[in-house]
Write a structure and sequence with these properties.
Elements (H helix, E strand, L loop, with lengths): L6 E4 L3 H12 L4 E4 L17 H8 L2 H5 L4 E3 L1 E5 L9 E2 L11 E3 L2 H14 L3 E3 L3 E8 L2 E8 L5 E4 L3 E4 L6 H5 L3 E3 L5 E9 L13 E5 L5 E8 L3 E9 H4 L8 H10 L2 H7 L3 E2 L4 E4 L3 E3 L3 E2 L2 E3 L5 E2 L7 H22 L4 H4 L3 H19 L4 H7 L4 H9 L11 H25 L6
Helix pairs in contact: 1-4, 1-9
GO molecular function: FAD binding
Protein name: FAD-binding domain-containing protein
InterPro entries: FAD-bd, FAD/NAD-bd_sf, Flavin-dep_Halogenase_NPB
Length: about 425
């Protein structure tokens, strides 16, 4: 019979695996429960360059460098009229190797992360379901789990870290989940073989963001190894799934491709190699990051939006920041909410900076226009795009961005007024 762990981590995704690895590196007894058997499918394939420092700390860099994952040097935007921006090359900000990152196949990447956690001493238990989390008031005190053979057992750690993804076991139990009313989006995606890639090595692994006609939505276009490209559309929930209208995912995807010639050209002649997938209303956060004896990390805390590929970056950062707070608390005998959630304010500042950038995109923000008008802030924009969002100097960019946004709104209003004036008037 193994000793009770000091910390139990629920979920073996990037957030849970990161938190577990750091705690094990710090000498704590950590057990991780994962309900599935890895490798398993998951969407969300693009890393931000700032994840380099996380991967370095976790001892993952050599594994990534020797992997088949496609190298990513930039992100590029395509307008609804088909105009392509210059690529935002991350190395222009910093010529260090940290400015190159990867497009990952999540089944392979998450498996590497879980194996890495085990190699650092984490007691990883796959195909093990958490049936219940026990509370004494607001304090989490233990768990009931079901083992792969169907037997159950109870475990009583000092701290429980919930990295259960959108299942959000503790957040749902305590009713902490808060949807983002401004980001009621949906997505439909699939994977294609032999789709077009950019011709040179710097751009062939670039993430492309391509707007649909009328800026009603956008496509991600993420090259992967084995000649596969992940292609997905994101739009308002009501736009993709109107009430009272029944369409297959294939029909929805085809209609959106027709609204985006830049994507249609790229996938013409390719072969779809998976089913279509969908997810809806995925933007939310919990009202707390922690409580006495428990912490939320990754998607168990919240998810922003796929537009800038920030999901893995925020998962990693929450996992590391939470692990540091938990480790300090265990060493000091303090597992209070104040201690376990001490990382929350800094994390939320970074998340909110990304959220402002997301809101701006959906309000029509144009990177090219902004950089031409305020070239001195290109570095700040690039910092946001690489995920280096946990520094106050970035806040200098918001006032100039608002100036550009106001000009865009004024231009759109003028065009709308001109269009209204040109409408023929019915004569009575």
């Amino acid at each position: 019979m193994t000793a009770n762990p000091e910390v139990v981590v629920i979920g073996g995704g990037p957030a849970g695996a990161s938190a577990a690895t750091v705690l094990a590196q710090n000498g704590h007894r950590v057990r991780l429960y994962e309900r599935e058997k890895f490798p398993r499918f998951h969407v969300g394939e693009s890393l931000m360059p700032d994840t380099y420092w996380v991967l370095h700390r976790l001892g993952m860099l050599d594994k990534m460098k020797s992997s088949d994952f496609v190298r990513k040097y930039s992100v590029q935007f395509v307008t609804d009229t088909g105009k392509e921006s210059q690529p935002f090359y991350f190395f222009e900000n910093n010529p260090h190797e940290c400015s190159q990152t990867w497009q990952v196949v999540r089944s392979e990447f998450d498996h590497l992360m879980l194996q890495n956690a085990a190699s650092h001493g984490v007691d990883v238990r796959e195909e093990t379901r958490v049936l219940d989390v026990y509370f004494d008031g607001e304090r989490a005190t233990g768990l009931k789990v079901q083992n792969p053979d169907g037997t159950t057992e109870e475990v009583f750690p000092k701290v429980i870290i919930d990295g259960s993804g959108q299942s959000s076991i503790i957040s749902n139990r305590l009713k902490l989940r808060q949807p983002d009313a401004k980001l009621r989006k949906a997505s439909v995606w699939s994977y294609f073989e032999d789709a077009r890639r950019e011709p040179n090595h710097l751009d062939e692994g670039s993430t492309l963001v391509l707007q649909t006609k009328g800026k009603k939505g956008w496509f991600w276009y993420i090259p992967q190894h084995n000649n596969i490209v992940s292609v997905g559309v994101v739009s308002d929930l009501e736009n993709l799934f109107p009430k009272g209208e029944r369409r297959s995912l294939e029909e929805i995807f085809a209609e959106e491709v027709a609204n985006c010639p830049a994507v249609a050209r790229r996938i013409e002649g390719s072969k779809r190699v998976t089913d279509f997938y969908t997810t809806k209303d995925f933007s939310y956060r919990s009202s707390r990051v922690a409580g006495p004896g428990w912490v939320l990390v990754g998607d168990a805390f919240g998810f922003l939006d796929p537009i800038y590929s920030s999901g893995l970056q925020l998962a990693f950062r929450s996992g590391l920041m939470a692990a540091d707070a938990v480790s300090e608390g265990l060493k000091n005998g303090d597992t209070s909410e104040a201690q376990l959630g001490s990382w929350g304010p800094e994390f939320l500042k970074g998340m909110d900076r990304l959220k402002r950038l997301v809101y701006s995109f959906y309000e029509g923000f144009n990177f090219g226009t902004f950089v031409r008008k305020f070239p001195q802030h290109k570095r700040h924009i690039t910092d946001l795009l690489i995920g280096d969002v946990f520094k106050d100097s970035l806040d200098e960019v918001w006032e100039p961005m608002e100036i550009v946004q106001a000009e865009i709104r004024e231009k759109e209003l003028m065009m709308a007024n001109e269009a209204a004036e040109e409408k023929p008037v019915a004569l009575c």
